[in-house]
# Entry
Amino acid sequence: MPKKQTNPSASFDQMKTSFLLLLVVTFTSLVSANSIPCIPWQFNPPSCKLNGSPKPGFTARFFHLPINQWVYMRDPSYFANDYRELGQIGEVSGITKQNFVSTIPCIPENGNPTFECYTPFYENYPRYKCGDVQCSNSVRTPYWNNQIYGFQTTVSNVTVELTGYLKAPQTGPYTMIFSNIDDVAYFFVGSDTAFGCCNQDGDLSEVDGYTMGVMYPYAKQVTFNMVEGQYYPIRIVYSNAWMSGTFESQLQLPLGNTILNWGKYVYTYEDKTCKNPSSSSVSASSTSSSISTSTVVSVSTSVSVSYSTVADCDCTYTDSDGVVKSYHTDLPINTRK
Ligand SMILES: *[C@@H]1O[C@H](CO)[C@@H](O)[C@H](O)[C@H]1NC(C)=O
# Structure
């Protein structure tokens, strides 16, 4: 058999091929490494050290939202700050029960009495059905009641902003769960994202981005560390674009218990009574090494993720009872720059 002639270009091709193969193998293993249960995204939002006289609960501000405006619902910039440009219509304070559901009236086609409908679904658009009952009124109409914190508004089309300081009852990882959102809600935590220290009443010039955004019918959650006794600015911006609405959130504490009425940990500091004893805000990141996450997650959390990465991930973790749980998480996202 003749000795195979060594063709320099052929061996170069071989080299290229094996290099490419190596690339493919490396890339494939990277991809599969990424699709293995991702490490839960945790971060240390900057907090505030506050003196002064806080009042219990959130402050809610209501903003105009034209009915059926889906272009706003799909725009993170709307929820980060642009919602304020459409105009404020009212304010309610002292909210410790932050969750709500709203209904719209169904006027039955068969002449039966009008009743409040929580779960309308559109059929024979623009009319809708509630259960088996065909309603004769339209989903495109604004409907009024006071089911959102007692404030009389069009529950069918409104944007509600909640602000307050979440005072951490313990040191450790917290998980904010938006479990049932209709239509859209965004969550902001930290003085760099929600609002600046002692600037709850003020503008949003000090903050940027958002922590988590959820659109109907998905549920999402995000985990972050807090230090006991520190005040963490939080902001929630909720919108309903039409029909009935729901805002259902829960907070999982470091010891694992999940709380529905977590608004009891929230305080409002009017800017004029709010005193910031340190000129710079206290960041939890300086103390994060002392935070144990072993009660909630069994995987290492020492991943570093770039702040501006736009990504979601589906995560699983094993809880303290050995049960594998899965959830969807968002990474904080910059919306402006
Ligand atoms: C809801 O829509 C109606 C009709 O477009 C409008 O008159 C009303 O002001 C809107 N509500 C809010 C809170 O903007």
